[in-house]
């Protein structure tokens, strides 16, 4: 045997050992992604079983979808936040599978499964083993688990946004007509089902434009512009309904960077600090690592991978700015679910960046350890939220059906609980809202605005209560009411010189409480707020009887 042959023979075992280690690492990565997917599926199933009745926003969405005619859906869609294709989808689903709570909860489960599939598609399209980071940062996020699976358009919108990112990234790597068409279809679909997708699609398109301009691929620049124009044109039929709605002034709230950041932080910490820690640790490290890698590849003239990284870095950054601008223009008092689309886009971009960076062995190992930590610790933070009901209105309605007589009066306070109460209450006792509304199926803020400018918007409510109590019958108050603070000024017709259009529902509730406290001889709590119900719609039930002048 020659010396060269002997050297090759002595090196062979170590080479095979290295290959086995690489195979084991790949298999471990794949297994971690599969286990994370299974864990998300498990919690989706738990959520579908335990979420309970539909809360007011879900009930309003369903009842919009069930309007007698399609014309009513197209004329009222702007009151429930999502363009007509979403209520039309719910209308079709209900026709096929029924409108029971259980059926509609499994609709949310199906959306969650579709999100997992979209994450795997995007990850595999760029050659990664699986969407480890996305499943951890978004799939196991309490905000997604609770609100992304509810009967609203956020979950489906997130699915389509994730597909838009993955397909656009694929089109940048392989700029073919088929890839451009696929990315365009995904972007159009996302804005058709969710208004909040508009600024994020703009961020994705701007990131793609940046890459193609730097590559001097002006034909692709023109293609992106055409695709963006088609997407924008598809939204035009709905734009008028949103832009001409003067009633949304009652929802306006000063949106500052600090207030938006605080609500975003709450969305990350929906059920504990651990998920926020994962985000704060992973996102900056991945973005910094991707930026450094991009600079190195650019210097070495490895432009294909560098441009893909640049696209994903730009998506992560621009989506934050465009979404903040969107919320600033919207100026609503945001809730955790408002941030689901932004979290989805950032998590999707971070996951794809992580897949590219994981070609370095130490990053692959670090990502694997991160996945193991998620598998070990995040289930404990999700357990409570997975079992949390979104409302107790169905329980309240059932108690009223048992105990309220046809001569009693039910007062729903405030009026925005009406859609869920309308769905679940089937008794013979008449009911009104505070203030009274002519529409209970959906949220009609235009009717609320009309009430706000009246001199005495609760006069009919007080009259109905007085008549019931003077007739020796009972008044049941869904949502409760407390007396007005003596230092609380009377607001008068809106807009108030100091408070503007804000605070009227709270003031009306206190006015109702003061009226009952002054004129009802007996009052008791018929039903306390329940344990294990989300604070957003965990209402008490009060009962008042007797009249005193």
Task: List key phrases describing it.
single chain; 549 residues; mainly alpha; 2 domains; 5-stranded mixed sheet; 21 helices; 5 strands; 66% helix; 4% strand; elongated; disordered N terminus
Architecture overview:
This protein has 549 residues and is mainly alpha-helical. It has 2 domains: 21-387, no CATH class; 393-545, no CATH class. It has 21 helices and 5 strands. The chain has helices at residues 3-50, 56-65, 70-76, 85-97, 101-125, 132-139, 142-148, 154-173, 177-193, 197-214, 218-243, 257-268, 274-299, 303-330, 340-357, 361-387, 393-403, 418-424, 445-452, 459-470, 504-519, and strands at residues 409-412, 431-433, 475-478, 522-527, 541-545. It has a 5-stranded mixed sheet, with helices on one face. Strand 1 (409-412), helix 18 (418-424) and strand 2 (431-433) form a beta-alpha-beta unit. The chain is elongated. The chain starts with a helix and ends with a strand. Residues 1-15 have low confidence and may be disordered.
């Amino acid at each position: 045997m020659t010396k060269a042959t002997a050297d090759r023979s002595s090196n062979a075992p170590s080479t095979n050992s290295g290959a086995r280690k690489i195979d084991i690492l790949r298999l471990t990565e794949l297994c971690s992604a599969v286990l994370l997917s299974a864990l998300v599926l498990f919690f989706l199933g738990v959520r579908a079983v335990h979420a309970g009745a539909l809360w007011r926003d879900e009930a309003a969405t369903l009842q919009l979808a069930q309007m007698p005619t399609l014309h009513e859906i197209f004329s009222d869609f702007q009151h429930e936040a999502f363009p007509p294709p979403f209520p039309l989808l719910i209308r079709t689903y209900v026709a096929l599978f029924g409108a029971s709570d259980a059926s509609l909860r499994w609709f949310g489960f199906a959306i969650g499964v579709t999100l997992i599939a979209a994450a795997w598609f995007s990850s595999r399209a760029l050659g990664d083993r699986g969407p480890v980071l996305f499943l951890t940062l978004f799939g196991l996020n309490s905000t997604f688990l609770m609100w992304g699976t509810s009967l609203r358009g956020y979950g489906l919108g997130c699915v389509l946004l994730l597909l838009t990112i993955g397909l656009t990234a694929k089109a940048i790597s392989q700029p073919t007509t088929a890839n451009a068409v696929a990315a365009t279809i995904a972007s159009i679909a996302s804005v058709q089902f969710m208004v909040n997708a508009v600024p994020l699609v703009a961020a994705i398109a701007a990131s793609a434009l940046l890459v193609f301009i730097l590559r001097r691929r002006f034909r692709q620049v023109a293609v992106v512009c055409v695709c963006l124009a088609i997407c924008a044109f598809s939204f035009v039929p709905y734009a008028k309904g949103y832009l001409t709605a003067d009633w949304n002034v009652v929802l306006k709230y000063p949106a500052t960077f600090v207030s938006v950041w605080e609500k975003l932080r709450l969305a990350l910490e929906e059920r504990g600090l651990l998920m926020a820690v994962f985000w704060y640790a992973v996102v900056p490290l991945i973005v910094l690592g991707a930026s450094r890698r991009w600079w190195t590849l650019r210097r070495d003239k490895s432009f294909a991978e560098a441009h893909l990284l640049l696209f994903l870095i730009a998506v992560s950054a621009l989506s934050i700015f465009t979404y903040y601008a969107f919320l600033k223009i919207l100026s609503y008092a945001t809730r955790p679910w408002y941030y689901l689309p932004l979290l989805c886009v950032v998590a999707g971009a971070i996951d794809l960046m992580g897949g590219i960076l994981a070609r370095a062995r130490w990053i692959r190992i670090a990502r694997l350890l991160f996945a193991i930590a998620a598998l070990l610790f995040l289930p404990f933070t999700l357990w409570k939220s997975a079992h949390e009901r979104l409302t107790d209105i169905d329980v309240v309605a059932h108690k009223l059906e048992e105990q309220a007589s046809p001569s009693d009066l039910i007062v729903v306070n405030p009026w925005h609980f009406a859609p869920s109460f309308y769905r679940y209450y089937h008794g013979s006792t008449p009911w009104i809202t505070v203030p009274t509304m002519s529409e209970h199926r959906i949220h009609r803020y235009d009717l609320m605005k009309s009430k706000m400018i009246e001199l005495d918007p609760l006069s009919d409510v007080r009259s109905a209560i007085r008549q019931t109590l003077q007739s020796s019958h009972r008044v049941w108050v869904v949502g409760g009411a407390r007396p007005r603070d003596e230092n609380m000024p009377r607001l008068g017709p809106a807009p108030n010189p100091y408070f503007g259009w804000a605070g009227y529902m709270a003031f009306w509730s206190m006015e109702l409480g003061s009226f009952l406290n002054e004129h009802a001889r007996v009052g008791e709590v018929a039903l306390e707020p329940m344990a294990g119900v989300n604070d957003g719609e965990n209402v008490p039930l009060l009962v008042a009887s007797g009249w005193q002048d």
